[in-house]
Amino acid sequence: MISRALVRLIAQLGATAAVFLLFGCSSGKPYALIAQVPSNAWIQAASLEVNEGKCTVHVVSLAYKDFYTPSCSVLKDQATYKSFKIGDNQVNFGAVDNGFKVLSTPFTLPPPDISAAPAAATGAAAKAAAGKPAAPAVAAVPTPTPAPAAGTATVPGQEPFPGVWLVAPYPGQVNLVGQNMGFLVTGASFKINGGDGALDVTFKGNYPALHIRAVVTSNDHGDFRLIFNPNAIAKLTSGGNFDIQLESEGGGISGNLWDSHGFDSWSPPLPSSWTTPSENSN
User: What element of type H or E holds 56?
Assistant: First the structure.
């Protein structure tokens, strides 16, 4: 007969295997952590990518003129425990549910570098953001930010580094090309390198070319989320949305296909369909 001790050992091993299967982050396979941003935060998105023993951090906030991208180094990377040096701060993560939680008090992000609160949104965005802190003039904000508590300054203060993160696929290296570009667009490409994205667009006439950075996240379906700097994107796109979704449609004759949601709010609008040759796709 199998002893109770052996039964307990088998159960423990099974539980450990399940954890490794769930997180799978100690095998050396690239992955990303995506912050669960509080609804009342000025932070719009944050990601941490790990690939080949190196890490990168991206924070998108209404408080910054550009992305906050502190230095990052991997101190320990295990299935249920992770430690990174982010800027001058050691940040330890422990596994909870289907993600990770910062184990100590999160460090404080740098103070805002904007001279005043972002201008209020107009039109549809104004309705979506009613009762919420001032935001750049955008067509829509996917996750509207509620107003600060009574007595809070209009310009945001220093916020804590996000404390709860979910595991997500590593975005990879993908070169996307716009399809059916319309009348004004003469060329459109988007290059993904892990959590970094670079959009390059040229137009006919007097429209200036666009060369814009974005933070990129992905999911299990192969969709991409492109988050541009909200404080810069409004003036470049005549109030277009800064949070763009690219939904994977799978393989096609010319390669993999993605449909965009949000680029139609830009002026001029960008392609609604994007593709990449199969050999360039992860």
Answer: strand 54-61
Sign of CA dihedral 60, 63, 65, 69: negative
pTM of the model: 0.76
Hey, is 66 helix, strand or coil? coil
**Selection from 244, 218, 231, 222 nearest residue 47 by Cα:** 218
DSSP 83-102: EEEETTEEEEEEEETTEEEE
Give the span between the Cα atoms of 195 and 216, in whole angstroms. Answer: 5
Are 267 and 240 in contact by the 8 Å Cβ rule? The answer is yes
Give pLDDT tens digits for 128-156.
Answer: 333 333 333 323 333 333 333 332 334 45
Over residues 56-82, the pLDDT tens digits come to 999 999 999 999 999 999 999 999 999
Name the residue type at position 97.
D
The pair of three-digit structure tokens given for residue 193, joined into one six-digit string = 């390198």
User: How confident is the model at residue 102, as a pLDDT?
Assistant: 97
Nearest to 210 by CA among 186, 230, 183, 227: 186
**Strands (E) located in the chain:** 31-35, 43-51, 54-61, 72-77, 81-86, 89-96, 99-102, 164-169, 173-179, 185-193, 196-203, 210-218, 224-228, 243-252, 255-261, 273-276
Task: Tell me the C-alpha distance between 44 and 52, whole Å.
Answer: 27
| Residue 209, both tokens | 């070319």
What does DSSP assign to residue 67? -
Measured CA distances, 154 to 18, 63, 100, 125, 144 (Å): 46, 11, 32, 19, 16
Q: Say how many CA atoms lie within 13 Å of 114 toward its Cβ.
A: 25
> Which DSSP category does 39 fall into?
T
